[in-house]
Amino acid sequence: MSRTPGSSSGDVARGASFAAAKGAMLIGLAVVIGVVLLQQVDNDTKRPVGAATTTTKPKSTPKTTTTVASTGTTTTTLASTPAKAPAQLRVIVLNGGAASGLAAQMATNLKQHGYTSQPQDANNWTDHHQQGDSVLCKPAFQREAAALSLAVGQGTTVGAYPSTAPSVIQSEVDCIVVVGGS
Q1: Average pLDDT, rounded, for the chain
Q2: Complete DSSP assignment for 63-79
Q3: Does the pLDDT at position 137 exceed 90?
Q4: Is the pLDDT of residue 110 over 90?
Q5: CA-to-CA distance for 78 and 58, rounded, in angstroms?
């Protein structure tokens, strides 16, 4: 019986090992890219973006833990409470200058992304007009604001919750999604 070159079980094992190593490297690269992108989104949400000019004091301050390296140069602050799941976040979608019906479409889109706790139908914020979409969350919900802005869509800005809530809001909400004009 003759053997053909490259058909030994050793070659197959080496090929499988190479493929597994290559796959592990690709997964590692994807994890690193994901961490970098999450850091960028986190940094973008810390900048105030055009919403209200006054700040409101949160009802309760989230607890944080701080870890300081022995050299005293590195500080890491982590929230001690987990972020709310989309279904737990109370969201209202308001039309802030968009064409009629676009706020209702956005509300439906957000329900498909798991944001099902919407206390009332989308409505017009009659005395407010803006360009583009924005997410306005109360101070304790900044992590949720970042996730919600991704669900709203590319180019969505994250801003501070208004010091005076729009009169159209009939119940307690954590975040307002404003669908602006183009």
Answers
A1: 77
A2: PEEEEE-TTS--EEEEE
A3: yes
A4: yes
A5: 18
pLDDT at 141 over 80: yes
| Angle, in degrees to the nearest 10, between helices 142-152 and 9-45 | 110
**CA 54, CA 120: separation in Å to the nearest integer?**
26
Q: What angle do CA 152, 157, 160 make, to 5 degrees?
A: 110
pLDDT at 34: 72
Tell me the HSE value of 4 on the side-chain side, using a 13 A CA sphere.
Answer: 1
Q: What angle do CA 49, 181, 52 make, to 5 degrees?
A: 30
Residue with tokens 């304790």: 140
pLDDT tens-digit profile of 2-18?
555 555 566 666 676 77
Model confidence, pTM: 0.56
Cα–Cα distance, 74 to 172 (Å, whole number)? 39
Helix (H) / strand (E) containing 96: strand 91-96
Q: Is 173 helix (H, G, I), strand (E, B) or coil?
A: coil
Max CA pair span of the chain: 88
Residue 19 CA from chain centroid, whole number? 34
Question: What distance in Å separates the CA atoms of residue 59 and residue 124, rounded to the nearest whole number?
Answer: 27
The secondary structure element, H or E, covering residue 106 is: helix 102-112
Q: Residue 59: what pLDDT?
A: 52
Closest to 79 in 3D by CA, of 102, 63, 100, 95: 63
